[in-house]
Write a structure and sequence with these properties.
globular; Cytochrome Bc1 Complex, Chain D, domain 2; three-stranded antiparallel sheet; 12 helices
Length: 332
């Protein structure tokens, strides 16, 4: 029996042995295992800007509140299309510097939402910038801290052509006559966040989520069979509500309201369809809207539009999948 109280040599050797075993098991063996994985077909190396954004993500402590791992249990289905796999964390062996490889920022806390697929959920740079400057501007009850040091407050006359001006509502500004300009670090961080996407896997090879129980599974099945159509309200919440808000009132000075909008209530739906497909940046006093042509199907766009055109007091004729398809085809 070793007596660590008197045999200090045995104590040190035991501590070193435990450290060595843990280092091999936790760090070295997994590192060698990762060498055997290749990126998914659509996965690309991080650009220099995106790699710098990853450094900003680390230095600002984002990993303390956000995970980047979709577990294989059913409750995680809201964060991604499938559970995460080792290939999702292969960055083509890129390195931050001579000592460090690109970090796999799995995280351990979900004080904030998981960011595995945030590049799909919130692809718009304008939303991401405003969210970083003051999260309460886009989500009233958000507990996320603001990051004003990633931005600069300047006079309107000092705004340069290549500056990224953040559309901040006046109530969140100390001086409404000032403009908020994104720093290089803010642009790099947003560029990194936009890369966080779950890439497609070969057909029929994606892992499935494990349901909570047979009761839960039965409930989901009944819900799916009860409504064969798409849920426009759910699609709106997942793709549009972050900017235009659940009540359709938008964010003054940043994102326009949909409630009472002439475009939304117009009997001719073509302009509204084009805005969703192609994006829009011509509304004075508001930030740009990203295009959704590559993210939403014609049927999904029609479902979202019908929800918007008949909610919050709006009344407009129904839009069909064929209506959206005609507009999409006309711009090809």
């Amino acid at each position: 029996m070793l007596d660590f109280n008197t045999n200090h040599k045995a104590l040190l050797l035991t501590v070193f042995g435990v450290f060595a075993v843990l280092s091999i098991g936790v760090a070295i063996i997994p590192a060698f295992q990762m060498e055997g994985y290749e990126p998914l077909p659509e996965q690309e190396e991080l650009t220099d800007t995106e790699l710098k954004g990853l450094n900003v993500y680390i230095s600002e402590g984002c990993v303390a509140c956000h995970t980047q791992q979709v577990r294989n249990i059913e409750m995680d289905a809201m964060w991604g299309d499938r559970p995460s796999i080792p290939e999702d964390y292969v960055y083509s062996k890129q390195r931050l510097d001579i000592w460090r490889q690109s970090a796999s920022l799995l995280g351990s806390e979900r004080t904030g939402p998981d960011l595995t697929n945030v590049g799909v959920r919130q692809p718009g740079a304008a939303w991401q910038m405003l969210h970083l400057y003051n999260p309460r501007a886009v989500s009233e009850k958000s507990i996320m801290p603001s990051f004003p040091w990633l931005f600069e407050e300047v006079d309107s006359t000092r705004v340069r052509e290549d500056d990224v001006v953040v559309a901040v509502p006046s109530q969140f500004l100390d001086n409404p006559n000032k403009k908020i300009v994104a720093s290089e670090e803010a642009k790099q961080l947003v560029a990194y966040l936009q890369t966080l996407k779950q890439h497609k896997m070969p057909e029929n090879s994606a892992p499935d989520f494990i349901p909570f129980s047979k009761i839960k599974e039965a409930t989901v099945g009944r819900s799916a069979s009860a409504s064969k159509g798409l849920d426009g309200k759910k699609l709106f919440k997942n793709n549009c509500a972050a900017c235009h808000q659940d009540n359709g009132k938008g964010v003054p000075g940043a994102f326009p309201p949909l409630a009472g909008s002439e475009t939304v209530n117009n009997e001719d739906s073509e302009k509204m369809i084009r805005i969703i497909l192609e994006g829009y940046n011509e509304m004075e006093g508001y930030g740009p809207m990203q295009a959704f042509a590559d993210q939403l199907t014609d049927a999904e766009i029609a479902a979202i539009m019908n929800y918007e055109r008949n909610s919050w007091g709006n009344e407009a004729p129904e839009v069909t999948e064929e209506d959206v398809r005609k507009v999409r085809d006309s711009k090809l």
